[in-house]
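Morning run. Coffee first, then this:
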Amino acid sequence: MVRCTTGTSSASSSGGPRGGAAGRTVVVLDANALFLPLRSALRIESEVDRLLGPYEIVVPTSVLGELARLEEREVGDASAALALARRFRAVRSRGRGDDAVRACARALGACVLTADRALRSRLVEDGTSVLYPRDRSRLALERAAPRATVNSRPHARRRVPPTERAR
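And here it is:
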């Protein structure tokens, strides 16, 4: 079972007074998103602000754990990505990988920033909007289609029994 809850953290949220305020769009970061500014000219916070307006960036604890494991294995830029992640508010998550990120996005009603194309497709199918790198310095937003409800289907034609058609 994967679960995400908001938790308290000593890490600060994005942009000082922006964090946690009502009316702000919540953006969940995937682990690979934290490597983007280290390997390109992308500035996450200014791009999120450009696309969404007021926002709060959060990082699931599963992503923090993934980055810590990468740091232990001495993967390039993992230490810097972990330091960047700690600048944002942590949210408790259970599970690992993409499932934990998806669960957090659903639980928080959040948008996700990821460079993972497969995860992006699954998120959009789930009804979650996704920020993704458009080029080396800009993000793009893929808004999820509204979820269909029973009442949002087009009206079906009434099926006429064969006995009524003959009249």
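Strands lie at 4-6, 25-29, 55-60, 89-93, 111-113, 130-133, 139-142. Good start to the day.
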